[in-house]
Amino acid sequence: MNTEKPSSTTQSAYYVTTPIYYVNGAPHIGNAYTTIAADAIARYHRQQGRDVFFLTGTDEHGINNERAARDRNLTPQQHVDELATAFKALWNTLDISYDRFIRTTEEQHKCGALEFWRRLQASGDLYRASYSGAYCASCEAYFQEDELEQGDICPIHKQPVEQLQEENYFFRLSRYQAELEQLVGTTDFVQPVSRRNEVLSVLRQGLRDFSVTRQNVRWGIPVPGHPDEVFYVWVDALTNYLTGVGFPDDQQTLERYWPADVHLVGKDIIRFHCLYWPALLLAAGLPLPRHVFAHGWITKDGQKLSNSRGNSIDPNELAARFGVDAVRYYFLRAIPFGQDGDFTEAAFVARYNADLANDFGNLVQRATALISRFAAGRAPAPGVPTVSATSVGASESDDLHALGEAEAKLLRAAHALPPRVADAFERISPDGALEAISGFVSVANRYAEETAPWHLAKDPDAGRRLHTALYHLAEATRLACWYLWPFIPTAAAEGHRRLCAQAPFAGLGAWGVLQPGARVESGPPLFPRV
Predict the structure, then answer these.
(1) 452: which of 70, 128, 230, 417 lies 20 to 30 Å off by Cα?
(2) Distances (CA, A) of 399 to 404, 411, 447
């Protein structure tokens, strides 16, 4: 089970995906949550100098879209074109930096899906059989009787299933029982641990072969040799992770990025990604993704989101009211990634005011305004030697002895920040990364209070001390902006620009980037209090 990059030339490559979202309605906050998280992960690894590919897109075939198009008096293609446009528009609003937006109705994807099918046929793991049983059109999945609630209710969508009978192709999932038990049970392929345990529970029940074509659906990729059947929508959709990076024709791009470093998914689709997908890849003779990370669901005021309940969260409306960066920040900071999280507007406003307006926004405002007022808008040269963050750590350091205790504490915090953030991203914990960055912002604000440049400016003999305090405050603020950029790209980039006239690109994540004499600009608050 190969989960490594295929050659040493691609060790710096990083490939992250969202699910390709099923276009059975307008994009919702759950879609936005996954995509914002993927975007923060992609941006962080780009900052680290890695060759990143970030894939998202839309899953457009299947019986749901066929029926929805008919109800709207549209062709299926017209229906999915309209909804794919809505997804792209939301990602543009939320400042999503994807490298490719793939659609399963694209010809390139269809060609890749057909090649994947040919490999499955060559494996001997496809066979013809009849199926009779329960089918949930919303899940696009068959269910066994013991998996249903109250005998006929889908456990995911809480709606009655349909009874279908048809002959089609099946995939020998049961053949891969032992390999999947080893993969899930002995590696960190499935994350977090709670989801891994769920998948292990399914494995203990024994895997059943599943149908990979459909006769009752016309809107899909026709099966070679059986034009009256189409690919099961999940077989079609999962293949996007390969076709999105060149499979099968662009071998150079495929080898550069595949296998994926992480598939981000919602917890309701872990069976497809953690069992079906690796088994299909094994049958096709292709390397497996390194990780699948399944996050939880968002609720509102303690209730599951539902249009029928009238408690849905419109990400466009939320961004229009509070700003895109605030939306991005809240959902990645307030909800431990991997767990369910509840949204209330009161909690959103409280987090906005505390973290963004009072802490980070105030730090940027304070640093730039003080330098504008007391150093003519130029970063002053510190009156005592400063040190790079990489040299901080030993209290015996001569450089640290040359600094005051306030600077020493600030520099130790700056030194601790990069490994803490790196560890959080390694664990796929954006909330953990933000916790570390927020802690550093608090240290920087305390530094400002301890050194009080506004008092030093009144003392004609404190010029060296004033310049030291202003420099360290400005550099700490710049560093906070740099690390916050993956999460709040617009505000963080603006804060970084005000402090050193540069965008927060790769290579600026260590202490000492700010050069004495650099122009520092003040400006309006980045996050006015709500």
Answers:
(1) 417
(2) 10, 11, 18
Render pLDDT for 196-253 as a digit per residue (tens, 0 to 9): 999 999 999 999 999 999 998 899 999 999 999 999 999 999 999 999 999 999 999 9
Give strand ranges (E) for 360-434: none
* Triad 211, 212, 218: Cα angle to 5°: 110
Indicate the DSSP class of residue 160. B
For helices 29-47 and 76-93, the axis angle rounded to 10 degrees is 50
* Topology (CATH) of 8-295: Rossmann fold (3.40.50)
For residue 223, list its beta bridge partners: 226
Q: Which residues contact 446 (CB under 8 A, 6 or more apart)?
A: none
Q: Which CATH code for domain 345-500? A: 1.10.730.10
294 in Cβ contact with 267 (< 8 Å): yes
DSSP secondary structure string for all residues of 454-518:
HHHTT-TT-HHHHHHHHHHHHHHHHHHHHHHTTTSHHHHHHHHHHHHSS---TT--STT-SPTT-
Do 290 and 45 form a contact (C-beta atoms < 8 A)? no
Give the residue from 13, 41, 15 showing the smallest Cα distance to 432. 41
Q: What is the CA radius of gyration of the chain?
A: 26
| Residue that is written with structure tokens 């991005």 in the block | 328
Residues 512, 411: Cα–Cα separation, whole Å: 10
Domain segments of the chain as ranges: 8-295, 345-500
Contact (Cβ atoms closer than 8 angstroms) between residue 135 and residue 141: yes
